[in-house]
Amino acid sequence: MQPVITIEGLTKTYKSGLQALKPVDLTIRKGEIFALLGPNGAGKTTLISIVCGIVTPTSGRVVADGHDIQADYRRARMKIGLVPQELTTDAFETVWATVNFSRGLFGRPPNAAYVEQVLRDLSLWDKKDAKIMTLSGGMKRRVLIAKALSHEPDILFLDEPTAGVDVELRKDMWAMVRRLRERGVTIILTTHYIEEAEEMADRVGVILKGELILVEDKAELMKKLGKKTLTLHLQEPLAALPPELGEWSLELRDGGEALDYVFDSNADRTGVPSLLRRLSDLGIGFKDLSTRQSSLEDIFVGLVHGSQAEAA
């Protein structure tokens, strides 16, 4: 698939000596939803800010839809919409005026029908004449999204877009994201709500201490790294694991009343049947069992902790 964003050797080192980004190479495909995950301070916002032309890189190159973000800034920036983390809007303007003004900043001719549709999609139409200073935090967040969409960008960056907003806005926004992708818009998002990335993203990137440590198709990532946990709720609690169960990686919890076994569901031999036979042979009964598939959050936490351990 044709890349819409190409990032090559991108770095950022501030005057203080802080290296916010180590060399980053990344291509983002046209029409996909790409989720960038990482803990606070990992470099997510720095990377987005460079691609959007807000921060100047120390080295490297970014091309957005065929336009170099530095050599051809104006054309590259016209392709991009950005919803920042911070609630920065003109408090004394009306919703209608600020969204139309934002459209004009990108050289787009007036299009009242388009702006109306954006406001309706974000449940802002009945607030179009309200001054932004009178809106709630959630409504101000909706205005930021409307501003980002005002010039009909082909690429949309969402930097922690649902942080601190209500459930209704979150649902509205993700419904809108799906509609945008259906129209061919490429979406790049950072989020702390990892379940959102798991539901929405086509691919996932993990960034840690300025380094992109993994980029993978979400489905493939879940297949390769996702584990299953078998939990057995025992009839009688165990004080300790019998040595006869040593060949399985088991964990006792809940005061010895529950037994967890983590296994690779894609393996030819999971070890589950032989474990159940051995428990029966030992006279260890269970009253219930359940399995749980590892989530993207489990995988993310494991990757981050694994990388931190290697660095130590």
**What is the CATH third-level topology name of the largest domain?**
Rossmann fold
Give the total of beta strands: 14
Helix content: 25-40%
**Overall pLDDT:** 88
Could you spell the SSE succession in H and E letters? Answer: EEEHEEHEHHHEHEHEEHEEEHEH
Please tally the helical runs, counting DSSP H or I stretches of 4 or more residues. Answer: 10
Q: What about the largest sheet? A: 6 strands, mixed
Shape descriptor reads elongated
Q: Could you tell me how far the N terminus lies from the C terminus, measured between alpha carbons in angstroms?
A: 38 Å
How many separate structural domains?
A: 2
CATH architecture of the largest domain: 3-Layer(aba) Sandwich
Reading side by side through the largest sheet, how are the strands ordered?
6-7-8-3-9-10
| CATH classification class of the largest domain | Alpha Beta
Low-confidence stretches are none
- Rg over CA atoms, rounded to whole Å, is 24 Å
Helix/strand class: alpha/beta
The H-level CATH homologous superfamily of the largest domain, spelled out, is: P-loop containing nucleotide triphosphate hydrolases
* Beta fraction: 25-35%
GO molecular function, one term: ATP binding
Keywords: ATP-binding, Nucleotide-binding, Transport
Protein name: ABC-2 type transport system ATP-binding protein
InterPro entries: AAA+_ATPase, ABC_transporter-like_ATP-bd, ABC_transporter-like_CS, ABC_transporter_ATP-binding, P-loop_NTPase
